[in-house]
Amino acid sequence: MVRGPGVAFPPSFREVALSLSAHSAKLVAHPVGRLQGRVRAPGDKSASHRALMLGALALGETTVSGLLEGEDVLATAAALRALGAKVTHERETGLWRVRGFGVGGGREPADVLELGNSGTSARLLAGILASHPFTSVMTGDASLRRRPMRRVIEPLSRMGARFEGREGGRLPLAIVGTDEMVPIDYRLPVASAQVKSAILLAGLNTAGETTVIEPEATRDHPERMLRHFGAEVRVAPADGGGKRITVVGWPELLGRDIVVAGDSSSAAFAVVAAAIRPGSDITVENVGINPLRAGLYQTLRDMGADIAFENEREIGGEPVADLHVKGGVLKGVDVPVERAPSMIDEYPILAIAAACAEGTTRMLGLAELRAKESDRLASVSAGLLANGVKHEMGAADLVVHGTGSAPAGGGLVATHLDHRIAMSFLVLGLAAREAVAIDDGSPIETSFPGFAQLMNGLGARIGPEIEAA
Length: 469
Ligand code: S3P
Fold this sequence. Notes:
Elements lengths: L12 H6 L8 E4 L5 E5 L4 H13 L3 E5 L5 H12 L3 E4 L6 E4 L13 E2 L4 H12 L4 E5 L2 H5 L3 H10 L2 E5 L3 E7 L8 E3 L5 H12 L4 E6 L6 H8 L4 E5 L5 E6 L8 E3 L4 H12 L5 E8 L6 H8 L3 E10 L2 E9 L7 E2 L11 H10 L1 E6 L12 H11 L4 E3 L4 E6 L8 E2 L5 H13 L4 E3 L12 H7 L3 E3 L6
Parallel strand pairs: 2-15, 3-14, 6-7, 10-11, 18-19, 22-23
Antiparallel strand pairs: 1-23, 1-24, 3-5, 4-5, 7-9, 8-9, 11-13, 12-13, 15-17, 16-17, 19-21, 20-21
The structure holds shikimate-3-phosphate.
The site of shikimate-3-phosphate has 10 residues, from helix 7.
């Protein structure tokens, strides 16, 4: 359950602070009063990966503005370059340009594809690599090498590709692709937009129609963006419930101009920080509010949070709003289990909101959290324990008992190479009685470069420095 020294018996903040050095990857968040100001959410990670990948599979030039320049997306850019796409960044305008190789036109990479911490890169690229007639090898950091890949290996093998990986189909993984893939009708065994995307991407270089049956709706960025690039994608009700998503093979995709909206999963950290600090008043601009991603905001409203969607508009085919948040005292709720796919990345930060709320919050149906950048149920539970928050963790659920007053804090949290664990517990530190430290802030770079600066601009106190008590 709990790994690493000092977690079962959390060290005091002073002990933690004294062990910090200016160059350490450790970060500390100090308790603050209210947060105030306006910030802009960084680009959406899911849309950024897909814009680059579809740009590579298109002919002609794709431009992308608002791209998330986090390590995960940069790993995708590097892999696409290795496959023959020209991916460049214009410093003056911030615009990214992709000159694609077209469906089926990629070349064998000369070296192993190093994907760092990025599960989205690995799973989606598997679909592209499987449907090209060459052999490639993907690897990643210790977190990515632990993550399950069978979920994409299984359907892509049925289509005709071959895979050689470590036990359990983990990275490093060799993929022997083919351009003679056969179309499948595949029912997703887990609610996963990554698996759906991998199959649809493979379906692009497959003759005929490839169908994914999705019993529970997951984020629909792949469908929206495939259509935007000119692919034929049909969505129909599936027998027994859910959706049948069909892509027609061998389309001619054409380069497009893409504007990436802000990431609702990243915005969530500032939104929760403000919602749990009474008197706060912040606006996070340019946040994607696609209903298949926005489950957290509904849940926070159920908890009594004051969150207004202002200036609602459409950007790049996605609904977007400026989120105006006022702080107060939240109440515990039961989160409907069917909401999980629309907020799957937000349970760590919801657990922080729950720790500060009055009453019990029950979060169920969370088995998938164990397959994220870390075992997120275990990481959240250990972090709550280290900071004096009463809770129970089950195999697939988490129940957090808030008291309505500030949690004790003062703990050191192990982030296990997981950006969302890192950011969530820094938010806890803003609202706790004593500062909260995380052992490693470096994973934040994967999805939210500049997180600490952005939060500090709102009045947070996050940094590596030792501050006098
Ligand atoms: C993502 C889908 C989700 C999510 C991940 C990004 C995507 O994963 O957790 O951060 O971009 O498709 P699953 O598909 O495994 O649920």
